[in-house]
Design a protein that fits this description.
Oligomer: heterodimer
CATH class of chain A: Mainly Alpha
Largest sheet of chain B: none
Distance between the termini of chain A: 34 Å
Helix content of chain A: over 70%
Structural class of chain B: mainly alpha
Number of helices of chain B: 14
Distance between the termini of chain B: 69 Å
Radius of gyration of chain B: 27 Å
CATH topology of the largest domain in chain B: MetI-like fold
Strand content of chain B: under 5%
CATH architecture of chain A: Orthogonal Bundle
CATH architecture of the largest domain in chain B: Orthogonal Bundle
Radius of gyration of chain A: 24 Å
Shape of chain A: globular
Structural class of chain A: mainly alpha
CATH topology of chain A: MetI-like fold
Largest sheet of chain A: 2 strands, antiparallel
């Protein structure tokens, strides 16, 4: 804080007013709008009738909403294990003295995370395609043409299939974040450990892991927040189908509001997404807080 | 002479670990090369497949094109109905304006919140910080309603409003943290020399904040260029579509003509791909810094 200088109030106000109005308009006004509309029966037309908590009652008993929520949680779980887990293993490999081309791995690995989720969705739709997809081509090439499927129509597999592109897209991103955390560790620590006879596995578990714990927790938080809002590539790949087999919360809210133009209930779902996402993100933060406290004590 | 060929035990062990290390090295390198290859493979596959005709591609999806043709590109570029050129221009305008405003506003607000004492300082800080916690996808439906009611949807500047609003919290947070690390002596000296608040802000502080402003810009170039869901609900007119939207329309139209889709995708991705590979070091650094601190 500046002590000696006090700029004129007028000047400070002038600088702050536009960004603040813009922010309030695009974030808080919609939040309030959602809350207000969530109490109305409203199919997008001129007729809007107040119906109290009916929408919320519907929401609580709406199996599709909770299915979507579970799918979001599934994505979170798969991505934490897939993205951060694989990224961590790759980082351990890349840090070995035997590995060449480190710069290239970093550049190439990071690349997918800079592409639009929409494009990633298209690319993987093409990979999964029945007639022209790489997976079916590969199955035919190894003589297992009998395993060919219309992949994205498989109800049981579809969640995993939409999760794979997400995992693939972000491994490199987390790899680079973890790499930069490790490179800030004093190399002497590793040398001493090696002299003391710790093997690579022990070094990874007992030295690297505790030292980059905070970075890993940041990665997990990013991963949770990112997957609670999954929408783009699901919209492109399956639109939530077949049936509701790959429905996620944002997709469901979109469908109800714009395909069925049920804007009243759509607003209720938006409030639901808001509350559930905050609960999951807040809950995970709370658990992380507990865990880190435990270890320090 | 024969003695020379007899290895001692230690030498044998050394040779063994050498072999072991060699095998391990090959193994590690191989896995990482495979990983990097899968990351870049779609780009390569799309590139050479876009040089095939549809018929050729359908017959062999993996093989290299025997008689490469630019037909798909010509096709796309010569037909204005596809809106790809327009969409790239739209994306460019929206991204440029949004990033400029995010960096500018982020810098000003971040600086003021870090340095100027006034009543609402902490209130504003918490409010912007909350923006980072709010799951923005819950705003999808209501933002549509708000923009429709205020007549703000479906203009060239429509998307700039939410993009700036969503980009601001991280920008403010990063700048605020950065400014706090800068000694106040600079501003005090400037004030004694008679420099006004605004002049100090733009001529003395801004150059110092260049690194953090670059970070903010890098993060937001990619998010704005790639953003899809808000563009989807806020824009209707085909003339205004941004790249991700135009691509979904395009693929809907030519669902089975893969080489054509690939050509269109590469074309619309090209600015970001070129940007990434020309300054990947800076970009990676910026994105990581933004992610970890934000």
């Amino acid at each position: 804080m500046l002590q000696a200088i006090k700029p004129k109030k007028r000047v400070v106000f002038a600088y702050l007013v536009i960004p603040t109005i813009l922010f309030v308009f695009a974030v808080f006004v919609p939040l309030v709008t959602a809350l207000v509309n969530s109490f109305y029966e409203w199919k997008g037309g001129p007729n809007k009738t107040f119906n109290g908590l009916t929408n919320y009652n519907t929401l609580i008993h709406d199996p599709t909403f909770w299915l979507s929520f579970r799918h979001n949680l599934f994505l979170v779980a798969v991505c934490i294990i897939g993205q951060i887990g694989i990224a961590f293993i790759l980082v351990l490999m890349i840090n070995s003295r035997l590995v060449k081309l480190k710069g290239i791995h970093r550049t190439f690995g990071f690349f997918p995370s800079t592409i639009a989720a929409v494009s990633i969705g298209f690319i993987w739709t093409m990979i999964y395609d029945y007639k022209r997809g790489i997976i079916n081509w590969f199955l035919a090439a190894i003589g297992r043409g009998d395993l060919q499927k219309v992949w994205l129509n498989e109800e049981k597999l579809v969640m995993l299939l939409v999760a794979i592109p997400l995992v693939w897209q972000w491994i490199g991103y987390y790899m680079v974040i973890i790499l930069s955390a490790i490179s800030s560790i004093d190399t002497e620590i590793f040398e001493v450990a090696e002299l003391d006879g710790a093997n690579a596995f022990q070094r990874a578990i007992y030295i690297v892991l505790p030292l980059i714990k905070n970075t890993l927790l940041v990665c997990i938080t990013l991963c949770i927040a990112g997957n609670m809002k999954a929408f783009d590539n699901i919209y492109v790949m399956t639109s939530g189908g077949p049936g509701n087999a790959s429905m996620v919360m944002a997709m469901y809210g979109y469908n109800i509001s714009f395909n069925q133009s049920n804007l009243g209930y759509g607003s209720t779902i938006s409030v639901g997404i808001f509350v559930m996402s905050l609960l999951v993100i807040g809950g995970s933060q709370w658990i992380i807080g507990l865990l880190t406290k435990d270890k320090e004590a | 002479m024969a003695k020379k060929f007899e290895m001692t035990k230690v030498e044998k062990n050394d040779a063994l670990t050498k072999v072991k290390k060699g095998v391990l090295g090959v193994f590690l390198n191989a896995i990482l090369i495979i990983f990097s290859a899968t990351c870049i493979f779609p780009l390569v596959w799309m590139f050479y497949s876009s040089l095939k005709e549809k018929r050729v591609f359908n017959a062999d999806i993996i093989g290299l094109p025997k008689s490469p043709t630019l037909l798909n590109y010509k096709n796309i570029l010569s037909n204005p109905d596809y809106q790809l050129g327009t969409s790239m221009k739209n994306s460019l305008v929206v991204t440029a304006c949004s990033v400029f405003l995010i960096v500018l506003f982020g810098f000003i607000v971040g600086y003021i919140l870090a340095r100027v004492r006034f009543k609402l300082n902490r209130v504003l800080y918490v409010m912007f910080l909350m923006g980072m916690l709010i799951p923005i996808h819950s705003l999808l439906v209501p933002i549509y309603l708000v923009f429709k009611n205020t007549g703000l949807s479906n203009h060239w500047y429509t998307l700039i409003i939410p993009y700036v609003a969503f980009g601001l919290p991280t920008a403010i947070f990063l700048v605020e943290g950065f400014v706090k690390g800068v000694p106040t002596a600079l501003e005090e000296a400037a004030a004694i020399d008679g420099s006004s608040f605004s002049r100090t802000l733009f001529q003395i502080i801004m150059p110092i904040c260049r690194p953090i402003m670059t970070t903010v810009a890098i993060i937001n170039v990619f998010t704005c260029w790639n953003e899809f869901s808000f563009a989807l609900i806020l824009l209707k007119s085909p003339k205004l579509l941004t790249v991700p939207l135009a691509m979904t329309q395009f693929t809907g139209q030519f669902g089975s003509d893969y080489p054509k889709i690939m050509a269109a995708m590469l074309l619309t991705m090209s600015p970001i791909v070129v940007l990434y590979f020309t300054c990947s070091k800076q970009i990676i650094k910026g994105m990581v810094a933004g992610a970890v601190k934000g």
